[in-house]
From TrEMBL:
This is Uncharacterized protein. It comes from the Bacteria. It comes from Actinosynnema mirum (strain ATCC 29888 / DSM 43827 / JCM 3225 / NBRC 14064 / NCIMB 13271 / NRRL B-12336 / IMRU 3971 / 101).
Length: 114
């Protein structure tokens, strides 16, 4: 008869190093701000989120929620302009730039309305 192996001693998660703390801080400080572009139809009180984006220091990358359109713009505001042009044939639509995360080191932005 073989003896049963002893159960493994529980292991604790590794202790973070100074380097990993520094990298986590760097990643948090340089993370892009998240935003959405939404369509509002005031006459029917309906709306939907058309796209989500990431605002980096030098550009904004945006992807439509239905997955058929991606763009890289100079800023979230210029991405909003692009989506406004794409929606120009929709009667009564109003587009909004909605900030999902605040700028680093400041209070949350006011959600802009064009």
């Amino acid at each position: 008869m073989h003896p049963h192996p002893s159960p493994a001693a529980p292991t604790s998660p590794p202790t973070p190093t100074a380097q990993s703390w520094w990298l986590a801080t760097l990643a948090a400080e340089e993370a892009p701000q998240l935003f959405a572009i939404a369509h509002e139809y005031p006459e029917t009180q309906e709306g939907w989120v058309a796209a989500y984006g990431m605002a980096f220091q030098d550009r904004a990358e945006v992807s439509s929620t239905d997955g058929d359109f991606r763009t890289c713009s100079a800023s979230p505001e210029s991405a909003l302009t692009t989506f406004t042009r794409l929606a120009r044939d929709e009667k009564g639509v109003k587009l909004h730039l909605i900030w999902l995360t605040p700028p680093h080191g400041s209070r949350p932005r006011d959600n802009a309305q064009p």
